Amino acid sequence: MTAQPHLHLVDTVLRPARGSNVFESTVEQLATAIRLGVFVDGDQLPPERELADRLGVARNTLRDAIAALRDAGLVTTRRGRSGGTVVTYAGPQVASADGPRPRVGAALVDALEFRRVVEPGAARLAALQPLSGEQRAWLAASLAETTAAEDRGAHRLADSRLHLAVATLSASPMLIEAVTRAQAALGELLEAIPVLAANIQHSHDQHAAVVDAILTGAADEARSAMEEHCDATSALLRGLIG
After folding, report:
1. 235 CB contacts (<8 Å, ≥6 apart)?
2. Claim: this prediction has a pTM higher than 0.85
3. Measuring CA to CA, which residue among 83, 5, 101 is closest to residue 44?
4. How far apart are CA 155 and CA 28, in angstroms?
5. Distance between CA 118 and CA 164 in Å, rounded?
6. Helix (H) or strand (E) holding 214
7. Average pLDDT over residues 142-163
8. In-domain check, residue 180
């Protein structure tokens, strides 16, 4: 149960595609799930029929979306009886100088303020839920993964999974969707700055405070701890990106 806490997030992030842009929505959801660590390097995606049903799309649409993921280097497809689609994304790398520029100015502020609103609320609501033993173990395992990560890519994926786990435990579908969006935007921003050891340790301490407050049912403390965590990340990004 605790060996692969990321697999508990599949139902959280993958939802039926909406609107008229079904193909694009399918690509976005699958790519987001991979980039946020819901599926990690070496994981095999669920069977085609199951995945199409989960996303509410035709199998042809799903195949086209997976082809797009292959072109982007996020997955590879193995043929034959034991084949399937396997994730090949190992985590974010430092952006190159000529790469796409992250959000700046008002767009940066908007992304950070959006996160500041939704994630503390999710933490508070999670602390108010009557969590089962399995849910508590999952949250604790998700926290442990963040401190055990040995490199930048693994840490970023474990970090986003922990935040998605907190959102999932809030039991609010709208908050889960909002936190998923916030984490996707945050990931883009963090790829643009260097890894700072002092910040990583500070983040570990703040994550531990959030999880402890949730597990003890201290709702206001959970919200405050997540606010402090969001504020620290915001200060770093504002300073290094502008």
Report:
1. none
2. no
3. 83
4. 22
5. 12
6. helix 197-215
7. 90
8. yes
